[in-house]
Design brief:
520 residues; 4 domains; 4-stranded antiparallel β-sheet; 56% helix; 10% strand; globular; disordered C terminus
């Protein structure tokens, strides 16, 4: 109860920070909201700071910096969507990528000493001040005693408590949204916040980030699409991560668009194909693909950094999304619709043909067009309306993938306004589908089925023992199968006897059939 009250007051505090920065209802966009919201926005500006930024995106960015890391992450995602938001607004938000204030050097040195059991001079020749500061950590450049140049990532002090308070507020906001805006329930605001909270919790343990980098490093070697910095495991810990230093230019550096030694169009293709390949071929992907987390080396190699958030897909989910993208590249809307029904995402009361027709209405107008000729905000609105008509519920386990795909496409559009999403995705999804639906995929499915049968057979002795006990109880007159609601004590447990009996007999027949098939 007390925690809820404190969270509510923090929510009021959040609103006040937004009001002070004129970021709650920015005056520049007042005409696009209902009159009562416009009235509230005008009243709130009475309390706004006099010397505030002229760019509404920058005002929001400054407010989010004051509010904490969870809010900063939200702003970073928004800043990649120049196609959906006013470009001036997203330009103002871009300060969140690499201009978050650093914490003092003395604190960084203290945290290193605590982790290493002594002053940093015992392990390092040199240690720079912070060269980059993000929402949950900052990075220092250093030289090891061996002469190797490394990047040292240090978690922000007291960050775990701050994130916990932020997430309490966001949970409350999500609850209010679901309660007062019934149309939002299909999108699952609570589930989205829950997924974000789990991701942040993983991001706040740098040992897990090191493990994530190592795992993606294996995919990097296999694919050759990108590179992951080498990890120095013996120097890392919960609050410290030490990796190879990467010389290059971050994609967030605007000069990458004009410097003739870089090819931004090629980088855009690499970024998208890296994301798709990791997702559909390996079931694991970098889930924070903003420009600041991509570095281009002088030879053109794409290097990914900052692995605090790692996304995963089960084999079923990999195939589901690969088939959807493949269907769009082939303009096979019936196939896309069938995949949704097979996965159980669309209720059976609707028809595959009707859903396919609705998807066609969205896909055909944008197929083959470049990014500059497609309004993604309009496309997303159409998809929202269509999935609402067909009662499709948002899938919490896929939110991170959808967010990252949107984020990555935003980066690609920044690098190349004419970026061709379909043309870039086609080679990757076609290769994935050949693997999944070809001989290799069929053999994999066969072995999965046999393994499932093996696990089922392992349970057969216990099932037979329970059925034998039930049969004995029946023979002794302790069970009357003519009365469906009766329960009885079997091996000390109360069970609904009639239904249990027939289900048990059916289970024996099924298991016997599985055993016979497995022997063929």
């Amino acid at each position: 109860m007390l925690r809820g009250i404190l969270t509510f007051f923090r929510l009021l505090g959040t609103s006040w920070v937004l009001v002070r920065h004129d970021a709650l209802v920015p005056g520049e966009y007042a005409e696009s909201v209902p009159w009562f919201v416009r009235f509230f926005g005008a009243f709130s500006r009475v309390f706004a700071l006099r010397e505030r930024a002229g760019n509404p995106g920058e005002r929001l960015a400054r407010a989010l910096e004051k509010l904490g890391p969870s809010y900063i992450k939200f702003g970073q995602i928004l800043s990649t969507r120049g196609d959906m938001l006013d470009p001036v607004f997203t330009e103002g938000l871009s300060r969140l990528k690499d201009k978050v204030p650093a914490f003092p050097m003395a604190i960084a040195e203290e945290m290193l000493a605590r982790e290493w059991g002594g002053p940093w001079q015992e392990k390092l020749e040199t240690l720079s001040g912070p060269v980059a500061a993000a929402s949950v950590a900052q990075v220092h450049k250093a030289t090891l005693k061996s002469g190797e140049t490394v990047a040292i990532k240090i978690l922000r002090p007291n960050i775990r408590k701050a994130v916990g308070r932020d997430m309490d507020v966001l949970h409350m906001v999500a609850g209010f949204v679901e309660f007062f805006v019934t149309e939002s329930r299909r999108l699952g605001p609570k589930a989205f916040v829950g997924a974000a909270e789990r991701s942040l919790q993983l991001e706040l343990d740098l040992r897990l980030e090191a493990a994530a980098a190592s795992e993606l490093g294996e995919a990097a070697v296999d694919t050759g699409h990108f590179k992951v910095p080498e990890i120095f495991w013996d120097l890392g810990g919960k609050d410290i991560l030490v990796t190879e230093w990467i010389d290059g230019k971050a994609v967030s550096d605007p000069t990458i668009l004009t410097d003739p030694s870089y090819d931004p169009k090629a980088v855009a293709v690499k970024a998208m194909q890296t994301f798709l390949t990791c997702s559909f071929d390996y079931g694991v992907f970098h889930a924070d693909m903003h420009e600041g987390n991509m570095i281009i080396e002088p030879d053109g190699t794409l290097v990914l950094i900052d692995f605090g958030i790692l996304g995963r897909l089960s084999p079923k989910e990999q195939r589901f999304h690969a088939e959807i993208l493949y269907g769009f590249t082939q303009r096979d809307y019936l196939r896309i619709a069938g995949v949704h029904f097979k996965a159980g995402y669309i209720p059976a009361k609707h028809t595959v043909e009707d859903f396919a027709s609705a998807l066609r209405a969205v896909g055909e107008p944008i197929f083959g067009k470049t990014a500059s000729n497609v309004s993604m905000s309009k496309v997303l609105l159409q998809l929202f309306e269509i999935t609402d008509i067909f009662d499709m519920q948002m899938q919490p386990q896929l939110i991170l993938l959808q967010k990252t795909m949107m984020q990555t496409e935003g980066v690609c559009r920044y690098l190349n306004p004419d970026f061709d999403m379909w043309g870039t995705a086609a080679p990757v999804v076609e290769a994935s589908m050949r693997r999944e639906l070809g001989p290799e995929g069929r053999i994999s499915d066969l072995f999965d089925g046999l393994d499932h049968a093996r696990r089922t057979l392992e349970k057969l002795p216990d099932a037979v023992e329970n059925i034998a006990a039930l049969a004995q109880a029946w023979a002794d007159g302790k069970v009357d199968l003519s009365r469906p609601a009766v329960t009885s004590q079997i091996n000390g447990k109360a069970v609904p006897t009639r239904g249990f009996a027939w289900a048990g007999f059916g289970a024996i027949l099924t298991l016997g059939t599985v055993w016979v098939i497995s022997q063929l």
